Amino acid sequence: MSAAGLPSQDLPPQGGYEPVQYKRNLPMRGFRPSYYLLGMGLICGYGFYAFGKGVHERRELKREKTWSRIYLTAVLQAEVDRDNYRRHLAAVKREEAIMGQVQGWEVGKSVYNSDRFVQSQYLAIPKQMK
């Protein structure tokens, strides 16, 4: 007790106490989140760019395939016509060999009452259906 009979108080030191550390002082791990967001945006952007290029390439290949088929149609039709003509000549020759002895039979004459050419129909039947 002091001389006046009052209890003595514990006072702060001159200049005050040091500041209290209440925050955690942990080091940052990795980059800032904005860098990760920017990196993912760039990766996704490149992915969309590459995907668009692939779509364009597939479209061009499809167009090229379509036009090549269009250009080949005439050649393939000419080949089919030559094959049909060869088959027709072979059929006339077989008809002449088979029906040559029949009186009044005209070899190669159409069975239709028209001058219009009617193409012969060939049907390929699989062995299982015979």
Can you describe this structure?
It contains 1 helix and no strands. The chain has 130 residues and is an all-alpha fold. It is rod-shaped and about 165 Å long. The mean pLDDT is 88.
Order of helices and strands: H
Helix-residue proportion: 40-55%
Structural class: mainly alpha
Globally, the shape reads rod-shaped
Sketch the major β-sheet: none
Number of helices: 1
Counting DSSP E segments of at least 2 residues, the number of strands comes to 0
Mean pLDDT: 88
Strand content: under 5%
In brief:
With 130 residues, this protein is an all-alpha fold.
Topology of this protein?
Layout: H1 33-99
Key words describing this protein structure:
130 residues, mainly alpha, 1 helix, 52% helix, 0% strand
